Amino acid sequence: MKRWLFFLCCLLALLWPSAVAAGGLPELRLSLCGGTAALQREAWTQPVALSVVMPDGREVYRTRRAAVKLHGHSTAAKAKKPMALRLPSAAPLLGMAPGRRWVLLANVMDHSHLRNRLAFAMARLTSLPWTPDSRFVRVTVDGRPQGCYLLAEAVRVAPGRVDVGGRGGFLVELDAYRDAPAGFLTPQRRLPVGVRWPADPSPRQLRQIRSFFAAVEQQLYGPQADAGSLWSKWLDLPSFADWWLLHELAQNAEPNGPRSCFMYRPAGGRLHAGPVWDFDLAFIDVGLDAGGDLRPARLRRPDAVLLTADSLYCRRALWFDRLLADTVFRCAVQRRWRELSPRFHALADSIGLWHDRLAADARTDALLWPGADPARFDDAPTFDASADRLRRTYLLRLARLDSLLGGGALWP
């Protein structure tokens, strides 16, 4: 029966694309003249026609001078493509703050389509200064439906986004893919640091950023480590505490890679954790191998450590092995958990609201992109089952963290 529905859906997509695209979400239309197969990850395809149409048929944005390229790494190899968008000028898409750079997250590894949206909502309840805003949309390319996407603000240094306060500030991404134009490995932990801003750092700027990270690791791991000056001079305590709590609540093991871990330093200030990004492999049990790579827990790799709802996921990621051994940081984490937990509990009802809003388009997406790809890390058979599991997992994790963070057995 499912196979029959799939072939019917494909036929409708060829003969009458709008029949498949029916749903309650705004539609983002792209004209690529060749489909997503022609997109590249390193080079922009341009100029591209792009428009945003509301469910009632109103066109609220149009340009013929957009640029598009592939986004992501492993997800970029999937049939349903994540995409980065660049507009000719800043625009407030779907009520979000004006910006030129946007990302269309395909959420191909997440049958619920809700993990990234939930994590962003969680982050907005914390002290983190900026978190990407996002909206669910359905996407068509050259008139053909591509399914349900999450349109999100890209992590950029720009007005209304990441604020580094002018010259001397920087934005970096700690990511094992090491695809930033400029970067380095930290001296102690050998963490891969890619410089995202300045966009084209001079040798002097790169040396300054590298020296800053070396000084931080000297405070953490050197023979004369000084925890007293760590928080007063080098690291912003509230952001690191909230960032860690957010990733623990989300069961996000990506920082162990590390993957997509942003940090920024305002000019002359301390290093801040964030903004947060990349939660399509969150809210699940995983196997973590010695190199920090994730594997679905059901594959049971012999070299993987199983992380479940009863685990701390990021206790040794990045610098947290030392940070969690620091009494000041540990007390801040426990205090912040007591403050944030009621807010996180209140967010649980939003999962049901998002499910209802997304349901028609998510079910269509499942017909457009069927299959049991094990790399999706989600063995829930349907959108409804996956969304229901996400809500139950979220509530279970909240309960588990109440006990994990209240005791001392799992602290390093």
Task: Give structural notes.
The chain has a domain at 25-153. It contains nine helices and 15 strands. It has helices at residues 2-15, 17-20, 115-123, 203-221, 227-234, 237-249, 320-323, 327-368, 383-404; strands at residues 27-31, 45-53, 59-70, 83-91, 99-105, 134-141, 144-153, 170-174, 182-185, 192-197, 261-265, 272-273, 286-288, 294-296, 305-307. Helix 4 runs antiparallel to helix 5, helix 6 crosses helix 8 and helix 8 runs antiparallel to helix 9. The radius of gyration is 22 Å and the shape is globular. The protein starts with a helix and ends in an 8-residue tail after the last helix. The model is unreliable at 1-22 (pLDDT under 50).
| Number of E strands | 15
User: What is the topology, as strand order, of the major beta sheet?
Assistant: 1-2-3-4-5-7-6
Residue fraction in strands: 15-25%
Instruction: Output the radius of gyration.
Output: 22 Å
As a percent range, the share of helical residues equals 25-40%
Overall spatial form? globular
Cα separation of the termini? 52 Å
Stretches with pLDDT under 50, minimum 5 residues: 1-22
Total number of helical segments? 9
The largest sheet, given as strand count, sense and whether it forms a barrel, is: 7 strands, mixed, barrel
Which sequence of SSEs, written as H and E, runs from N to C? Answer: HHEEEEEHEEEEEHHHEEEEEHHH
- Pairing-aware structural class of the strands and helices? alpha+beta
Mean pLDDT: 89
